[in-house]
Write a structure and sequence with these properties.
The protein has 2 domains: 185 residues, Alpha-Beta Complex (2-enoyl-CoA Hydratase, Chain A, domain 1); 201 residues, Rossmann fold (3-Layer(aba) Sandwich), CATH 3.40.50. It is built from 16 helices and 20 strands. Strands 3-19-15-16-17-18 form a 6-stranded parallel beta sheet, sandwiched between helices. A 6-stranded mixed beta sheet has the order 6-5-4-9-12-13, sandwiched between helices. A two-stranded antiparallel ribbon has the order 1-2. It is globular, with a radius of gyration of 22 Å.
Length: 426
């Protein structure tokens, strides 16, 4: 037997896999974090990619909008923000002419005490606002050429002289990657603009780690171009949440360099699909809710065969986590109904119902969690097990005792990509 430890809430659980069955573990590559976050962000600001330095772009009279996009729990957002403020002050921009906008997904997320203290500290210097997607006071910036999305954006952002985006780059289920252009759409976009964009996720090209012909990404990028973003600062972290590298400069050039580093760390090629994959959502805070934890399931799909079994290990102490997700699963129930609703009347949360039902067409899912069976089984159509080794035994009954198994401890940020041995020879 081989013991494999997987994050579960704030602890770890051990799955015992027969050595003859285990293909191995799928984990991000080791990449050391920098010893000094501040110095690394300062370096990025001094060496912008495809752009002049921010202090050269800004003018003393500039009205500046800084958007904080959704970030991971460890992202050095405070360091980025305070160093950007310093750059602007160096250019002669006064604090009273600077507005910090908490993007749509950032302001939705529950803030830690430390994050709230940072916001309070920033608010003593500059204006801090949260973006309201439902606000009527939006500015029409134009229509995206490829898909025809009418781009309505936050007025403070749209009418600023200088627009700066802060965020981190990691995999995103349908945009390919977070970061970069995501600081405009959805971060400071109107609800109808967001709905139009996210409805494009039904495309086969709208997948994690893919930008080529990805309609969600293309639409987001065109929207960001319409808004004339001047500068971005994005970071990439390792699996421990340590800053590996900061990227600053042009909206697209800096973002694409960051995406390359994400692939270098988190994209793992596998030359064989398993019959069973045991995947952890990554532990706390990524498995607080089923809504969050299913990102691990979605990431694991390419490493398991059609008809195989995905064992998802996620504590889900706070239940299912998103009311739209719950409502769509109860009201719509079938993938064809959910896909139609995504296209016609998208709502944030509905994408999880879409991905879950789509996965269930091809794989069986066994959830190991603290969630009551009533919800897991009756609402979300999952098989359940209270212990991880019970789940593995059930999976062997379904897939056969000779089944081969992958283990994936950090499903929240790992992207296994299947390449056949023939592809590797080419």
């Amino acid at each position: 037997m081989v013991d494999v430890w997987l994050p579960y809430g704030k602890t770890d659980v051990c799955v015992r896999i027969p050595a003859r069955n285990l293909l191995g573990t799928i984990e991000p590559k080791e990449k050391p974090g920098v010893t000094d976050q501040k110095s690394e962000i300062e370096r990025a600001l001094r060496e912008p990619i495809g752009s002049k330095c921010l202090s050269e772009i800004a003018r003393p009279e500039s009205k500046v909008a800084i958007v904080i996009d959704e970030t991971s729990p460890n992202t050095p957002g405070a360091q980025m923000l305070f160093l950007v403020l310093k750059e602007l002050n160096t250019a002669g921009v006064r604090d009273e002419n600077i507005t910090v906008i908490l993007g749509y997904e950032t302001q939705q997320a529950a803030k830690s005490e430390e994050e709230q203290q940072i916001i309070d500290q920033v608010a003593k210097r500059v204006r801090v606002v949260t973006h309201d997607v439902s606000a009527s006071d939006l500015v029409y910036m134009g229509t995206t050429k490829t898909h025809g999305n009418k781009v309505q954006l936050n007025r403070l952002f749209a009418e600023s002289d200088l627009r700066v985006l802060l965020g981190d780059v990691q995999y995103h289920n349908y945009a390919g990657y977070g970061g970069g252009r995501k600081g405009v759409l959805p971060a400071v976009a109107g609800l109808e603009t967001i709905r139009f964009n996210h409805a494009l996720l039904v495309s086969a090209s709208a997948t994690s780690g893919n930008l080529e012909n990805n309609p969600v990404h293309i639409d987001m990028t065109e929207a960001a171009r319409l808004s004339k973003v001047d500068f971005i600062v994005n970071v990439v972290e390792n699996k421990k949440g340590e800053l590996v590298r900061a990227f600053a400069g042009d909206l697209e050039a800096a973002f694409l360099e960051a995406a390359k580093l994400v692939d270098e760390i988190y994209c793992i090629t596998v030359d064989r699909r398993a019959d069973i994959i045991v995947v952890s959502a990554g532990g706390h805070p990524w498995d607080l809710t089923l809504y969050q934890a299913l990102k691990g399931m979605e990431a694991a799909k390419d490493a398991v065969k059609r008809g195989g079994v995905i064992i998802l290990v996620a504590e889900c102490l706070e239940g299912y986590g998103n009311q739209v997700f719950y409502d769509w699963m109860t009201r719509l129930s079938e993938i064809k109904n959910v896909e139609r609703e995504v296209k016609r009347n998208f709502a944030i949360g509905g994408q999880r119902a879409y991905y879950l039902l789509k996965t269930l067409l091809n794989q069986q899912i066994i959830l190991v969690s603290a969630m009551p069976d009533f919800y897991a089984s009756n609402i979300f159509k999952l098989k359940t097990a209270r212990a991880i080794n019970d789940a593995l035994n059930e999976a062997f009954k379904t897939a056969g005792s000779a089944s081969r198994v992958w283990a994936m401890p950090l499903g929240n940020n790992t992207l296994p990509v299947y390449r056949s041995p023939e592809d590797n020879k080419a």
